[in-house]
Predict the 3D structure of the following.
Amino acid sequence: MNIWSMKIAFNVGYILISLISTLPSAAQLLPFRLGQVEILEGPFKNAEQRNKEYLLKLDADRLLAPFYKNAGLTPKAENYGNWENTGLDGHVGGHYVSALAMMKAATGDKEISKRFDYVLKELKKCQEAAGNGMLTGVVNGKKVFGEVSNGDIRATSFGLNDGWVPLYNQHKIFAGLKDAYEIGESELGKTMFIDLCNWFFEITKNLTDEQIQNMLRSEHGGLNEVFLDAYSLTGEQKFLELAYRFSHQTLLKPLAKGEDPLTGMHANTQIPKVVGFAKIGDTDKNADYLTAAQNFWNKVVNERSVAIGGNSVREHFHPKDDFSTMISSEQGPENCNTYNMLRLSKALYFNEPQAKYIDYYERALYNNILSSIHPEKGGFVYFNPMRPNHYRVYSSVQEDFWCCVGSGIENHGKYGEMVYAHNGDNLYVHLFIASKLDTENGLVLTQKTCFPYEQQTQFELTLDSPKAFSLFLRKPEWLEATEIFVNEEKINPELTVGQYFKINRTWKNGDVIRYALPLNISLEKLPDDSNWGAFKAGPIVLAAEYEAQEGDNFFGDGSRMGHVAKGKLIPVYEAPAVLDATGDYTSHLKPQNQSKLTYELTGLSTGKPLTLKPYLAIHEKRYQVYFQLSNPDDFEKQQAEQKAVEEKQLALEKITVDRITLGEQQPESDHFFKDGGSYRGLGADSYYRSTWGSISYQLKAGQKVKRLLLVMNDLIANRAMEVWLNGNLLDQIAFDQNEPENRHEVSILLPKNLRKLNQYILEIKAVDGKHSPAITDIRLLKK
């Protein structure tokens, strides 16, 4: 197919179109196959191309090495580093199969197809060598799953039987093989997938439901979804039962009741489970499962997400009535979360086509997913900080193998999955992306647009012969007025309850539809209704661009924490705020260059205007998405209060060499947590961990350090602990029963012989039969 684009300018007066009630049929609305939609030239095509290049730069043999090892075969190359050789070995391999299948379907590229075939063939060798259907990259996978099969289950939130989330890891290869068949159209992929599911059924069939639910305390991806997929492919009841057994009841039950149990939870641990709930609910007509998924989506999208469509701080759901950490943290929304929220939105939409699912999908696709790949160098984003004047970090292809690299290599090969849908011969247009759809039914539709830089889209029909059908054009939530033309004749189509303009006629070859999409300016405040807001042009989030600071790490370096933007923290109280006595903040935003979608923002506390541009267009720069909104009379006082709080925190950050926030899944995992008997809990404002035995972590320095700082919450009365560092007892700390219940900090001066090491092993031991105090934060300080 030819790849091209066309930009059309026109001047029209916009009119509002009246509402008519017609609801599309949920039962028959279906997606097109990925291979039926070709992405044409534009930002999405560019991202697809960068993603394809990234896939081909990866060494397949290095990604396959963990699978060879578990199969008892000699690897052809050594593992990659980073997360691929520190406990999560093989996790990108499963994503790689999915990504190759998607890119093969989307582009038909010969090199991608060749790589796809090679990877499947080599994985088949590993599965055959195992002899029982097992295929795994999990470290010591045979041992771990052997213990599980025997009922020996030692689960924590991020570990199982001394492994780093092996179920989560295993889910990746399940999903990869399923995608190899469903998307890559490989019969070998199907056979391997069913064999793998049969193996897993055999090793878990003798476990009780209680044992499995205990195992599901450990992050496990979307295992319930892949077993449901196996049931859909085979019709075997055992796989449906397995899908139910691997649905985490701790999350399902409160969601089904309409409750919100999410605060403090690791966000992306939950979302894949809920995708499974949605698919089970749809396939097996289970109202509780479907309701749980719908409630989760509503709560996350409406109460826990920011303007770009992302959610979470430091990977966890913060209190929904307090987004302060979203503004202060350099670890904002995680990209994997949005990857899975789009998957959930797709599943729910095709169960019940509601406009809200596509509205969210569009917002998140442009602002979070499209923006997460470097448009020139490739590389994928992990965190999207909402902290003003901060930045994002991109992966380096041979160095970084974060979770968001795994989901990232999939994101940009499946842009065509939701652009169109169909109901019999009727055609639905959801997204305004330059693309060509081949319905394989005598109709080819070509969508020509530079949206959002062009505020319209145009469709050209190629038909074998005249054909009667209805064309449904989605009316986005942000569209206030429009005009629609067919062959340059203005029409006034009906608007359905489902928010589609319905054009019903007999179409002929060469017909052209033109759809005006004027972008209105809006302000979206944070869901907690605090005085922070983001400006949008239609669905496109706007941001101010700032110059980089010395030392900004825009690309990962293969280090364990290389995905975090560790550059200088610019005080939040110094960020420009928008001041207006009437609260009419959008009046300060004026169009500047519509071909680049830039605007001038005035009325700022600094007295100087700023240029805002699409957030998705900012790369290797600092930026500001959210602006403080204030009355001029109140701003000086607010700023002084912010300064007083923040200066103390910034001073501490400046001397921090390494930090662990205890009880949070990823920070503890990043510091190689070992549990000798402990529990985690959620206090008033943070997680904590307390031990009745011992806990240990690894901290890195690489420079001279001087002190160890431990922060505890109010659970300290009648508790005691010993603090050990590299086998040296630093301090024994005990609190009386009458100790005041408030926040405590203990600062320990390190012996001179422990101040210049690269790595430290910190151990907290309970003493005298007491639990340790509840520790929330540990820092290694250089002063």
Notes: The two ends are 63 Å apart (CA to CA). Residues 58-136+157-246 form one domain.
